[in-house]
Every structure is written in structure tokens, then in C-alpha cells.
Amino acid sequence: MQGINFDLSEEQLAVQEAARDFAEKELLHDAIERDTHSKFPEKQVKMMGELGFLGMMVDPAYGGGGMDTISYVLALEEIAKIDASAAVIMSVNNSLVCWGLEKYGTEAQKEKYLKPLALGEKLGCFCLSEPEAGSDATSQKTTAIDKGDHYLVNGTKNWITNGGSSDIALVIAQTDADKGHRGINALIIEKGTEGFVVGKKEDKMGIRSSDTHSLMFSDSKVSKENRIGDDGHGFKFAMGTLDGGRIGIAAQALGIASGAYERALQYSKERKAFGKEISKHQAIQFKLADMHTKIEAARFLIYKAAFEKDQGRNYSESAAMAKVYASEVAMWVTTQAVQVHGGYGYVKEYHVERMMRDAKITEIYEGTSEIQRLVIARSILK
Ligand code: CAA
Ligand code: FAD
Question: Which intervals hold domain Acyl-CoA dehydrogenase/oxidase C-terminal (predicted)?
């Protein structure tokens, strides 16, 4: 008989523990310093590759871990609990780059690009946004003009996570403007391609140790062998890939929220005011109760979306619900965690101020909260 089972399998628990162990040993000690100096976690990203965290769901035939989406969510949560920047670096490589290549790429593309990406030997980035095309993603200005055996790419991509540190870029560009979104292609472009320039690094509010750059293309020649999917399939590739990406960002948000909650819970048992621990004041207890409840609600929305993805069902709506809810929970919980810490929450040492700054981006990238609501509304009204 089939039913609901909320228990994790032994394999899933082992992945969760491995990720927690890695995050506590390798990410925690200099997370504040990396945030302060916007320093990319180069050594830790290399280790994540070696531990199999950069290609978790990829078929072992292509160097991946062959794991389910729940395992991936568990690992991302543990890493984001400590360092949300490391989590987004991981999420982009797994969900937006490896997944898209495995699902839509040719055998040759998988051998040449997916394998080193899944093994963590190379890092990837996903380039959809432009200076004038964020939420309105079909308004692509970057062009990929068909020149027979290759495309000539011109334009600027904005806000690209892993933009400076990646070796391989998946770039969305317009080939035939008359066909609208059906004239868009997705191309694999290697760093070092002529005319491919990495622009300035953004100085951000949060996730400061992930690197965000604009990328410029000027008459960059890209072989047709590097097109992902059929001609004109690029927009659907981007949207289909983002459905899974949104589960990853929801897991990142969940990790930020649970990291801040755990710190607030601990602090409330230590800090005394008016002759007793602040956890004995009902106002603080109710905050903790609400934080815990919202985190659990976000967790189950995320698990449901991950489960639907693993079952091969349509998960656009559940991924959007998980992402909008978890990101808003992350923003609310981190704000409360700062409040529980009082003045100490407002300085770097206690981590929760960083978590509050990190939480904000989860309401913006991979589709803003407004765009998630648009996706959900279209789904329920169709
Ligand atoms: N899967 C596959 N195809 C999809 C799809 C999905 N989930 N959603 C839409 N499509 C298809 C539609 O079927 C349609 O094709 P047809 O006309 O052939 O049927 C086509 O895409 C266009 O769809 P819409 O008419 O719905 O397009 P729209 O202009 O109304 O826009 C949108 C839809 C949901 C607003 C979309 O533009 C969107 O998601 N915008 C947000 C962009 C975004 O999330 N960017 C994230 C960048 S990556 C990032 O941010 C990474 C990071 O930070 C770490
Ligand atoms: P806009 O689209 O201009 O939106 C401005 C405001 O208007 C928002 O509040 C939005 O919700 C609202 N709005 C827009 N349209 C509607 C509508 N139809 N209904 C209601 N409200 C609406 N992109 C990539 O391609 N790859 C990456 O790796 C990547 N990484 C990023 C990392 C960071 C740190 C940041 C800041 C962004 C990143 N992005 C990336 C871009 C990100 O996905 C976009 O910023 C996001 O999709 C919003 O686009 P926009 O900034 O142009 O805002």
C-alpha cells in the first residue's frame, strides 16, 4: 500500500551528515572573513567537487553521484546553514548547469562538458539575465546569428553567479527575433573563446563570497555542435532548467532560515535578562515557535517539489511554491533571529546579520517572489 512517509532513507541521512560535517569543518571558520572581503571560497569549492557535491544528481556514467533530488536538497540545506554563498555556487553548478546538460545535451556534449563539471574539475554558470531582461526573460538582446556551421554571439549577460570563476557558460541568446521566444537558443561557451570578456564583479549586500559578474560577448564564434537541443529550444531549456533551480534556491533559503533559527534558539538559552534566560520570556518563546513552524512548512513544500521531480511529474508549480515560501520564511526568520540576539545580532560575530543579508537574494534570483506568484497563479487558473 502506498502512503506518505516522512522518514529519510539511510542513504539520504548519510548525505546530510556528510554535508553537515563538511560545512562545519571547512566553511564555518572563515565564513565571516570571506563575507567581509567578498572572497570566493576557492579551496572549499574544490573540496566540494572532490566530495561529489557539485554533480550530485548526475548519472555516475558522467561522473556524478546518481542521487535523488531529496539528497541534493538535504546537502544544500546543510551547506547554506553555514554559508549561503557556497550553497549558491553549488546550486548553480548542479541544478542550472549539470542538470540542463544531462537532460538536453548530446552524448558528445555530456562527455566533453558534463563529466568535468560533475566531477568538480570545472565550474559552470548559467546566463539568462541581461541589463534589460530579468523577469521579462523573453526580451533577449544578446544575439546568436546563424552563420552556417557556427553562431556569432554578441551582447551582455548580467548578474552571472560563478561568472568570474567558471570555465563553462550556458548562454541564452536570440537567433531569430521574428520568432520571439521560439527563436532563442542555448549555447555552451567556453571561457577563453575569442570576444568573451568577464566584466566587473558586483559589490553585493549578501552572498558576498559568491562571485557575480556581467559577461560580454563580441563576435564570439560558437560551433553549432555547442547548441543545446533543437534550434529555437533555448527558452524552453531555460524555463525547464529553472524549475529545478528553484528547488535548489528554496533549499538554500531553508538552510539560511534553519541556520539562523538554531543560533537564535541556542542564544535564547544563554542570554539572561530580567533575572532569567530570555527563552523563559513568552515573547521570545513565541518567536521561536513561529520560526520553527514556518521552517517545517517550507521544508515539506521543498520535499514535495523534489519528490515530484524525482517521480517524473510536472513540478513547475510546486517548485515555485517551495521557492516563494522558503525565501520569504528565510527573510522573516533571519530578521527574527537578529531580534532575538538584540544588539549582538547586529554585529558580524554572531553570524545572524550575515544570514539576514544573505536571505534577501533568495526572494530575487531565479525568479523574484512576484514571478513565482505569477507562475503559481497561471498554473491554478489555467
Ligand atoms: N518549462 C518549459 N517551458 C516553459 C515553462 C517551463 N516551466 N514555462 C514556460 N514555458 C514555455 C511556454 O510553454 C511558452 O512556450 P510556447 O509558447 O511554445 O507554449 C514559452 O515558454 C514562453 O512562456 P510564457 O508565455 O509563459 O512567457 P512569459 O514571457 O509570459 O514569461 C515567465 C514567463 C515565467 C515570467 C518567465 O519569463 C520567467 O520565469 N521569468 C523569470 C526569469 C528567471 O527566473 N530568471 C532567473 C535567471 S537565473 C538565476 O537567477 C540564477 C541565480 O541567480 C543563481
Ligand atoms: P526586474 O525584472 O526589473 O524586476 C524589478 C521588480 O519588478 C521586481 O520586484 C519584480 O518582481 C517586479 N516585476 C517585474 N515584472 C513583473 C510582473 N510581470 N508582475 C509583477 N511584478 C513584476 N541571472 C542569471 O541569468 N544567472 C545568474 O547566475 C544570476 N545570478 C544572480 C545573482 C545575483 C546576486 C543577482 C542579484 C541576480 C542574479 N541573476 C542571475 C539575475 C536575477 O535572476 C534577476 O535579477 C531577477 O530575475 C530579476 O530581474 P531584474 O533584476 O531585471 O528585475
Answer: 232-381
How many whole angstroms from 179 Cα to the centroid of ligand 1? 16
Ligand 1 atom with the smallest distance to the CA of 242 is 44
CA of residue 184 to ligand 1 center, whole Å? 12
CATH class of 239-381: mainly alpha
Contact 76, 56 (CB under 8 A): no
Ligand 1 neighbourhood includes 368 CB (under 6 angstroms): no
Percent of the chain at pLDDT exceeding 70 = 99
Topology (CATH level 3) of domain 10-123: Butyryl-Coa Dehydrogenase, subunit A; domain 1 (1.10.540)
Burial zone of 292 (CB within 10 Å; 0-12 exposed, 13-18 middle, 19+ buried)? middle
Structure ipTM over 0.90, yes or no: yes
In the chain, which residues fall in CATH 1.10.540.10? 10-123
For the question of whether the overall pTM of this predicted structure is more than 0.80, the answer is yes
